[in-house]
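Tokens for chain A. Residues wanted.
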């Protein structure tokens, strides 16, 4: 079992405000909030937050580590931000960003247009690469997963949308 919850969390570079069980984190990249479960206690002092479970049940211990990791990701998100890079492989596969609208040509008869939330930014360094960034780790990953789901990489030719560095296991084609 992970012991992620027992380590104190440093919050340098971010401003923390606490109201009951709600933690709000502000930084240069934005503002995020999280409602800590009632089964988990936390203390904020000297640019550190410590978490502890109220009892020894398995569910409480799981929530303890989860709460610490979520708040840690919030602090990292508002100070540094999160970036997911996607790459497209295939003839005619292209991406284009216009403001908060991402247009994808993925071999279908029509373009796929995706409206991005205000807190997410997308860039296209080249026509076959997409860089998604934002402060909320869950939202950045969700948008990347939605884009990938329109044309996941297939195992025969490797065509599709994948994360940069993702390994696609290739299969051998038909033999005569």
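Reply:
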């Amino acid at each position: 079992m992970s012991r992620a919850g027992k380590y104190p969390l440093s919050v340098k570079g971010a401003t923390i405000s606490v109201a009951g069980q709600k933690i709000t984190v502000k930084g240069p990249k934005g503002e995020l909030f999280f409602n800590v479960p009632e089964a988990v206690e936390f203390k904020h002092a000297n640019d550190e937050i410590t978490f502890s479970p109220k009892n020894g049940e398995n569910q409480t211990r799981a929530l303890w580590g989860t709460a610490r990791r979520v708040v840690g990701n919030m602090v990292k998100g508002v100070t540094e931000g999160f970036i997911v890079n996607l790459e497209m492989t295939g003839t005619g596969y292209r991406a284009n960003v216009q403001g908060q609208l991402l247009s994808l040509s993925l071999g279908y008869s029509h373009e796929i247009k995706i409206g991005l939330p205000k807190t997410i930014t997308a860039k296209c360094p080249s026509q076959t690469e997409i860089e998604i960034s934002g402060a909320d780790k869950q939202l950045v990953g969700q948008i990347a997963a939605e884009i990938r789901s329109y044309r996941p990489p297939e195992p025969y030719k490797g065509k599709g949308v994948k994360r940069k560095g993702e390994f696609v296991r290739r299969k051998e084609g038909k033999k005569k």
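The helical segments are 58-79, 137-150. The longest helix spans residues 58-79.
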